[in-house]
Specification:
The protein is α+β, with helices and mostly antiparallel strands and 125 residues long. It has four helices and four strands. The protein has helices at residues 2-29, 50-59, 81-94, 108-117, and strands at residues 34-40, 66-70, 73-78, 99-104. It has a four-stranded antiparallel sheet, with helices on one face.
C-alpha cells in the first residue's frame, strides 16, 4: 500500500513539474516584441536624437516600450509588429535623409537556440 502511494506521489510530482516547465516555456515564447533599428546611412554619421524620435512617435499616437542607443544605432522596441510598421512609416516621413530604418528580426534568439538544439549532421570537417 505504501509503495503504491509513493509511486502515485512521484507520478503526480512529475506531471506537476512538466506542467510548470511547459508554462514557463510557453510564457517565454509569448514575447512578441518588435524592434526598429535606426542608423546613419553613411559611415561616421550620428544617430538621431532619442527625444526627437520619441516626440514624433508620441505626436502620431504610436506607443513604444523603449528607445535605446547601442553601437551607433538607435533601437526602438514596440509591443507589436503593427506598432513597429506604423512607426517606420512615421519615421521615414519625419527623419531627415541619411538614416536607414530597418526592422530587426525578433526571432534571432529563437533561431539561435534551435540551431544549437537541433541535431544537424550535415556539417563538414
Amino acid at each position: 500500500m505504501k509503495l503504491a502511494f509513493t509511486r502515485r506521489l512521484k507520478a503526480a510530482l512529475l506531471v506537476g513539474a512538466l506542467a510548470i516547465a511547459s508554462l514557463m516555456v510557453w510564457s517565454g515564447m509569448q514575447n512578441k516584441d518588435s524592434t526598429l533599428e535606426i542608423r546613419a546611412s553613411r559611415q561616421g554619421g550620428s544617430i538621431p536624437d532619442g527625444f526627437y524620435v520619441w516626440h514624433h512617435l508620441d505626436a502620431n499616437g504610436i506607443r513604444f516600450k523603449s528607445i535605446t542607443p547601442l553601437n551607433n544605432t538607435l533601437l526602438v522596441t514596440f509591443d507589436s509588429s503593427a506598432q513597429s510598421e506604423a512607426a517606420k512609416e512615421v519615421l521615414n516621413r519625419t527623419l531627415p535623409q541619411g538614416y536607414v530604418i530597418a526592422q530587426q528580426d525578433a526571432d534571432k534568439d529563437a533561431l539561435a537556440w534551435l540551431s544549437i538544439l537541433r541535431p544537424d549532421h550535415n556539417h563538414l570537417g
